[in-house]
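User: Structure tokens for both sequences below?

Assistant:
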Amino acid sequence: MRPDDGVAPGREPAAARTGRPPKTARSNARWTIATLKAVALLYPAVLLAIVLVFRDIGERWWVVTVALYLPRLAFGVPLPFVLLALWGLGLRRWLWTQLASVILLLFPLMGLTLPWPPPSRRSGPAVRILSYNVNSAEGGADAIVNQIAEYSPDIVLLQEVGRAEDLERLLARSYPEMSSAGQFLVASRYPFLSTNDPDKAPHPGRLRSPRFRRHVIDTPLGRLVVYNVHPVSPRDDFVALRGHGLLHELLSGRLFSGDSAPLIESNAALRAAQVDALASQAEGETDPVVVAGDTNLPGLSKVFAEHLSAFADGFQKAGSGFGYTYPNDRGPSPWMRIDRILAKGPLRFVRFEVGKSRASDHQCVVAEVQR
């Protein structure tokens, strides 16, 4: 200590003599570590709470309905910061808390399916089915049909076909059987035994279509009942919710005002009624059933759990990864798995793939089934 420091020799502060940081610094360090430990425990707890809210409340509350359709990866934003903080402050024994966060984020929230060996294909016939929301063929009928041809399916189910003439003309080269009505088109290498449109169902004061078509097809697996489905989309209501831009609506507080709640809740109720009508009819079939199409039901949807959980999901049985199919026209990759192929009865999935074309705002899905 220099004489001009204003402190007499031998009178250094206790912290300097002992080499320990001042009491205030130690207190701040303890507070920082305690806070970080609390955050490390709180983060997986919040993720678990989100999973439970999605699963148990779901489309019953408009706020959760909106959240169901948002990119789930956003819930992982805090993860790298918590990991780096734990590592940097030497709390490496606490890293296990973030293992729980990773598991919750990847599996229930984002829907990761591990690439376990799929069911082996047995000797005997198999039927390959492709489902595709083609977005009114705005990407070109040729591009749509080229994507279909890449997988060479036996049965093709299309939704939102728009003007079907070009698609029918191109598909007729490979598929002798064709059935088209409204937004739906089915092309098959096997003969149709029957085709039925469901009765309209009442929904607050008016009759609404359940938005599916039923086909009985004579396949090498025997009679196969195929449902081509496309329940109502929430997209238009979310556009109304976004108003003058998501950031503007968020900063102004109007995003949380609930002005759009009646529209979103009515839309969700209609979608649930359509899925209920589909499931009620499909579950009554005596022949094997395939339900395929744009379900507009993302992962952890309560409507899906209540009405379609009894059906085997082709992606979960024979696929791997996230299986996202929409939106295929925004950003580098989709973030929702809403296009599905489901089955009920003596059918087993032995293959499942997701398409890669940008011909539509959806990716197609392809499954192979055997008895």
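Moving on to the next sequence.
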Amino acid sequence: MATVLGLESTCDETAAAVVADGCRVRSSVVASQVEIHAKYRGVVPEIASRAHIENVLPVVKEALSSAAVELRDIDAVAVTNRPGLIGSLLIGVTAAKTLAWALGRPLAGIDHVHAHLYSVALENPGFAWMPAVGMVLSGGHTSIYRVDGPLAVQLLGSTTDDAVGEAYDKVAAILGLGYPGGPIIDDLAQRGDPQAVRFPRTMLGRGSLDFSFSGIKTAVLYHVRGYQGRQHPDASHLSEQQIADIAASFQAACIDVITRKLQRALKKTRAKMAIIGGGVSANRGLRAALAQFQAPVVFPDLKYTTDNAAMSAGLADVKLRSGQTAGLDLDAVTYSQFQPA
């Protein structure tokens, strides 16, 4: 039985987890920075890096304590070393390399996007990896993949501009809502009319598996403030119901694009299953829309949708069993291994 200590610091969450056998989560601890960055309506890299420095050791200690293990019980150390904010990545990578060196344990470098795909296997022993279409939907990533196994992943398409979660944050800012925008808009959408406003669905041509969400964001801006934002300075002229209707209509457009891209990918790959990870995979509207989809759609448990270290520790177990280890020269890298530099 392999017990892996995982670390995560790609953006604004400092996380540590202990996972056994690649799927049994013994602990998962996340120190969130949402309140720190809320007033900026987005992550400030320098502030995030400083918070990681403060949080990394307490988070590791809490993960070990919650799992009822000590450092000597750890068989390997894993860290998400790509992609992400370079300053944030460096904190986690440095901590992981130090632990691996001090303990004399193997080190695994993990791609954050790959880990989001793997998150569906957490607490799901014997998960059947078959040819599947995988999607990662989050604030920083919107990509679609062919997945033939936990280590066999091929990029099929990605966003050409905003990630879908980023679009949610920007639309929330346009509507004068809080941060992060995803959960707020999802809540409002439950009370709104998804057909109130017909926002555009950008499909980027027949057969394309790439995404674009900047157009819908601009359409919301013009709808709220008038053409080029010149008629109204903000959303204060709108009623609560009008804001809910805009939120529901925006969400319906995003879900429509995601669903249609998923259909295209299934047809192209002839896969029989879809897996969806990342923060936006927690969206209630998306989960409801795909409940009766043409193929089975597997989501991770809600607690593993947002950034966490358990998904990295679980994936590390698979990589280590296949002989994929990292050296102490492991670098922090800002781009995904599935995308060009």
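User: Anything stand out in the second?

Assistant: Residues 132-300 form a domain with the Nucleotidyltransferase; domain 5 fold (CATH 3.30.420.40).
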